[in-house]
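My hope is that you will study the protein record below before we discuss the fold together.
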Amino acid sequence: MNVKIVKAGKAGSGQCTPEELEAVNAFARTELTAEEVYTFSVILCDNEVDRENECFTDQTLEQLRDLFVGKTGICDHDWRAANQKARIYRTEVVTDPERQTVYGAPYRYLKAYAYMLRTQSNAELIAEIEGGIKKETSVGCAVARRVCSVCGKEDGSCAHVPGEQYGGKLCYILLDGAVDAYEWSFVAVPAQKNAGVTKALGGAKDLKGFVATPVGSVFAGEYAALEQQAALGREYRENLQNEVLRLCLVCDEGMYPVLSETAGSMDARQLKRLKAHYEQRSAALFPVSAQLPGRNETVKFDGEAFQI
């Protein structure tokens, strides 16, 4: 399953040299001049552990480097075509030799170069970038795996808690295997320690919040179907637990107080095994007897069953 990630960085202005202009014109349908183009650089994301105890692997940064070339820049992750403001024309992964991550690796970040047209409608945004008002950016991408740094297990299948220490080693989540890059956006509030980022499931606190964001809205239908299936699963488990407790009262009433307190923590597999056990005991304690005689058998009737 691919995981949607939103990470961000900072924007800074630059000059459109002849080399840069050539790279820009690779994306333009008409030949642009340096006077028509405004270029700036963007730090998209890095390999440092952020406030949500996640970081991109170096391999993922390299993969995102290629995926983000040509991606459009918007504002606040609003995917309307009219909201397109800029486009990335070149990217690079930069290593800072004087800096290390919290886990002791060389600090690396993904840097992108974007261009805008110097139009009247873009003048205010260009002025805000130049004035340092618009400098935080956020990117939407997809990764294949979320890997625990302690044990290497994926997608939360272990008991390690990100942010906790295990044997003196920090637990964090490695975002590994870039699958796609969607867009990058100017945002207002940074959340990442070193890059001024809003991240983590589209800036949402949970999965439900993520599907309500522009990045996650494409998964709204799938999420609704999963919610419905989860509700059916909870109903099935509740009915199973009630049946186990009923059989316990029938077969072993003395165990009921203990079982009624512990059954809530059992999963469906454990409850099914307990249900099968009590059904066997119930069959042994209360065997089924026929009310009618068998073949070639007679029942003596003396009328005592009808005496008052």
In short: The first strand starts at residue 3 and ends at 13.
